[in-house]
Design a protein that fits this description.
Elements (H helix, E strand, L loop, with lengths): L1 H22 L2 H9 L1 H28 L4 H33 L22 H7 L5 H7 L2 H15 L4 H27 L1 H16 L1 H34 L3 H7 L1 H10 L6 H10 L5 H14 L2 H17 L6 H16 L7 H4 L2 H7 L5 H7 L2 H25 L10 H7 L3
Helix pairs in contact: 1-2, 1-9, 2-9, 3-7, 3-8, 3-9, 4-10, 4-15, 4-16, 4-20, 6-7, 9-19, 10-15, 10-20, 12-13, 12-20, 13-14, 14-20, 15-16, 15-20, 16-18
């Protein structure tokens, strides 16, 4: 319901803005430009909660893994699979949107304070800057990437502590996360007004070109997600686990339905567990470990969406993305996509670190937020299919004979059956 109200705020803002641009009506122009303060307040609220929310979620996700040595072969294979597939997802998203830029109108977004960014660093300077001399100064300055690295290192160290100390710190961070998530909900309740206050004045200035560009953005997300499924997820499941695309999609239909309707892979965990073991033959031990872990830290669809959004917003705000900035954006997106908070449109809300790494104004997030219901449903499908694929593949790699196909011929037949 909230997504529908936010979408209504965006549509109303676009209508008012387009009407003002097309007719020059004084009343519409006054309404469009007079609503801008609401958009500013909304974006300030988003910025206020982003840093503590990202820090707390990243800390709990990494610390909960415990001592990496205790994860054993299953943990190592799982994390490696997550990492090796998330980076291609980001690259596919960026490449798809880059191709889609030729179909977008040439528009100039209003200048914002965030456009006044320092000259981008070289590769060596960028790597050095990842280790902050003062993490508190990085937090106060809004420098997200070094703060994320610091948080990840502290979380990894926490994972090696005694169980009592580790759980105490994780529980504290969990409580902080829950409070911040509640705050995000409150902020999102104001999103319809905030999105109107951002869309109306921007559309009044930019006209139909902005609406066309948003349509191209959604199409690029769909194409990128479909490409990722067909060249990464489904081929790996077939060639490694011997499960054909038709059988795999049929076996995961329930989980996909829940994830799509709720836009939450966490809500689909109970169904995912049942389908992974019954329909796909994964051992209960592997499924019980990897399905919840994947729901908490593996979202290839969100990573692809964020890569697409970075290129889209960079084009809108005319921000160049040289090689050093691409590396920074991919690294930030990589970390954030592994630890996205379980809140509505979290793939949008937590994009700030990647935008900060490139110098793109955070205000662009509000434009995407207003149309995020469809992209959120699409990336939820890819997220849950990717999470279940990790359990299937790791179960196969670890050599559990009980869950392998009866013969190689069965594996081949599964591709078409």
């Amino acid at each position: 319901m909230l997504h529908l109200v936010i979408a209504a705020g965006l549509i109303l803002g676009l209508m008012v803005g387009l009407g003002a641009a097309a007719t020059g009506n004084d009343w519409l122009l006054t309404l469009a430009h007079g609503s801008a303060p609401f958009g500013t307040v909304f974006m300030n609220a988003i910025k206020m909660v982003v840093i503590p929310l990202v820090v707390s979620v990243i800390f709990t996700s990494i610390a909960r893994l415990g001592d990496p040595r205790k994860l054993g072969r299953i943990g190592g294979l799982t994390i490696t699979y997550y990492w090796l597939t998330v980076i291609p997802a980001i690259a596919i998203g960026m490449a798809t949107m880059t191709l889609g830029l030729q179909f977008m109108s040439d528009i100039t977004m209003p200048q914002t304070e965030a456009m006044d960014v320092a000259e981008l660093q070289g590769i060596v300077d960028f790597l050095i800057s990842l280790v902050p001399a003062n993490p508190f100064a990085a937090a106060s300055n809004g420098t997200m990437l070094p703060l994320i690295v610091f948080t990840a290192l502290v979380a990894a160290a926490t994972g090696t502590l005694s169980a009592e100390r580790r759980e105490r710190l994780i529980n504290i961070a969990d409580d902080i996360s829950e409070a911040l998530i509640k705050l995000v909900w409150w902020i999102l309740y104001t999103a319809p007004v905030g999105v109107f206050g951002l869309a109306a004045p921007a559309t009044a200035q930019l006209g139909w070109g902005l609406v066309q560009s948003l349509g191209v953005f959604i199409i690029c997300i769909f194409v990128g997600l479909a490409f990722f499924l067909t060249v990464v997820t489904l081929p790996l499941v077939y060639f490694v686990a011997g499960i054909g695309p038709v059988r795999y999609l049929k076996g995961t239909f329930g989980a996909v339905s829940v994830a799509t309707s709720t836009t939450s892979t966490a809500a689909a965990i109970p169904v995912s567990l049942g389908e992974t073991t019954k329909n796909l033959g994964v051992s209960t031990t592997t499924a019980d470990l990897l399905v919840p872990l994947g729901a908490s830290m593996y979202r290839p669809g969100s990573a692809l969406f964020q890569g697409t959004a970075i290129v889209f917003l960079a084009h809108l705000y005319d921000v160049p993305i040289p090689l050093a900035a691409i590396g920074a954006a991919i690294f930030a997106t990589f970390l954030v996509s592994l630890t996205v908070a379980p809140v509505p449109s979290s793939g949008v809300v937590t994009m700030a670190p990647a935008l900060d790494a490139v110098g793109i104004p955070v205000a662009g997030l509000a434009i995407i937020l207003g149309i995020d219901r469809i992209p959120d449903m699409l990336r939820s499908i890819v997220n849950v299919l990717g999470q279940i694929s990790a359990a299937v593949l790791v179960d196969r790699w670890t050599g559990d004979e009980r869950n392998r196909p009866e013969s190689d011929n069965q594996s081949a037949d599964a591709y078409t059956n």
